[in-house]
Amino acid sequence: MNIGKFSVTRPVAVTMRIAALVLLGYICLQRIPIDLLPKIQIPTIATSVSWPNTPPENMEAQITRPIEQAVSTVPGIIHVNSYSSLGDTWVTVQFNYGVDINQASLDVIQAVQRAKGRFPTDPNISEPSIFKFDP
């Protein structure tokens, strides 16, 4: 017997099955947890270097670019962002979801230490600071 013939000969049975499916769907929909702001962790690491009284152009050319080039080789990066101002520079690295932030921070520390060799030889340049955070 095909489904068309069954539906025509037994309309009450088909209607009851459809009503049961709709009721079951409504009950399941009410029990699904929905968050307006789900907990998403975006692994982010920032690096800060300060060189007092240095213009932003020099900070970018001599400090920021070597850090960006070194950090961009770390696996799992989505986005690299930098900000240079008078005497300060920040390089922020965002990673893919699910990347282990501890391992990524070790990779970033190694990359920044490699980039530090290309910094100018000025004793006023501070040691690079690495920060892990979840925005």
Describe this structure in a few short sentences:
The chain has four helices and four strands.
Could you characterize what this model shows?
By secondary structure, this protein is of the alpha+beta class. 44% of the residues lie in helices and 21% in strands. It contains 4 helices and 4 strands, in the order H-H-E-H-E-E-H-E. Strands 2-3-1-4 form a 4-stranded antiparallel beta sheet, with helices on one face. Strand 2 and strand 3 form a beta hairpin. The radius of gyration is 28 Å and the shape is rod-shaped. The mean pLDDT is 88.
Poorly predicted segments: none
Rg = 28 Å
Biggest sheet record: 4 strands, antiparallel
Mean pLDDT: 88
In what order do the strands lie side by side in the largest sheet?
2-3-1-4
Extended strand count: 4
Topology:
Elements: H1 3-9, H2 11-31, E1 44-50, H3 56-71, E2 77-85, E3 88-95, H4 101-116, E4 129-133
Antiparallel strand pairs: 1-3, 1-4, 2-3
For the structure shown, list the relevant keywords.
single chain, 135 residues, alpha+beta, 4-stranded antiparallel beta sheet, 4 strands, 44% helix
